[in-house]
Amino acid sequence: MIKSGFKWMFLIIGTTIGAGYASGRELWEFFGHGSGLAILLFIILFSFSCIVIMNVSYQKQSTEYRPVLKDIVGDKLAKIYDVMIFVYLYTTTVIMLSGSGATGQAFNFPYWWGIVFIVIALIILFLRDITGLLSINQVILPILLIGLLSILLKFTVDQELQLFSHWDEQHNWMAAFPFTALNILPLIAVLGAIGDKVESKKEIWFACIGSGLILGLITYIYNNSLIQIADELLLYEIPLFAILKNYPFQMVIFMSILLWFAIFTTAASGILGIVTRVKSYFQQYPFGLLVIIILLTMIPLTKLGFSNLIGFLYPIYGILNLYVLTRLILYPVWNNANARKK
């Protein structure tokens, strides 16, 4: 149970911690000053939403997200959100590819080198279908989480920051809702594709609560660090590099590698959601070929730039997804009501 629970927990975290999150850009768009309570609410909302999604996926033994989506938002809205999830996964995967290009630029490599590198890596990963993604998540994510947390804690100690110094400022608590909503939609797509592989509800509770607590802890410490350098963030496309500016170059290289892996795992989750969705229309084509075709269509869109894409798209998605979050929060209530009617 624990081994499988870790597998799903890392899948959830890998889907959530992408270029936007690990770089700090996504966190700064939603949180910032007065967000301690917002982050606590995020932990609760995120964990609960994941439990609902995985339970539905498990009960339906689903292999793609449509059956799960229909159960959560209803048949009428499922078609609208089906399109929306596809567009979301597509555009956020483009953002991940752009993030790979931006990471390469930090070391004076051409922007396109970073994009070509991640495209080739994704193609290689999916030669083993979904098993490649699950395997690499269990190796990469523990290193990523420990590395990111270590840097943030070191920055906190070096700057003599107080983790709870801003706890009396809670005016931004509403940010928890669009931020959770933003991160829930891709999880419907990814967790909806593994329902037939989950073996027990204990795995679900372990994975969902564990991922919520880990993400909440890192989010709180990360946001607290960004508050201290708020005036400098306009100068950096990737806020993480503002935190690292006074540290040895070797540490910058190490964190840049971890940042790239965060980008990679989220891009892989996005590709998984897209390909499992379109596979029913193109069953004659191998999984790997569909991955290649989809990635080739994304490359031209990466010219829009990493921070521009995040700054424009993420707040919009966060607002549009609020209805899905509301349905997830109220799912036990209206699901029981529907059961009584039957």
Automatic annotation (TrEMBL):
InterPro entries: YkvI-like. It comes from the Bacteria. The keyword Transmembrane helix applies. The keyword Membrane applies. Keywords: Membrane, Transmembrane, Transmembrane helix. The chain crosses the membrane at residues 34-56, 77-97, 109-127, 134-153, 173-192, 204-222, 249-275, 287-306, 312-334. This is Uncharacterized membrane protein YkvI. It comes from Ornithinibacillus halophilus.
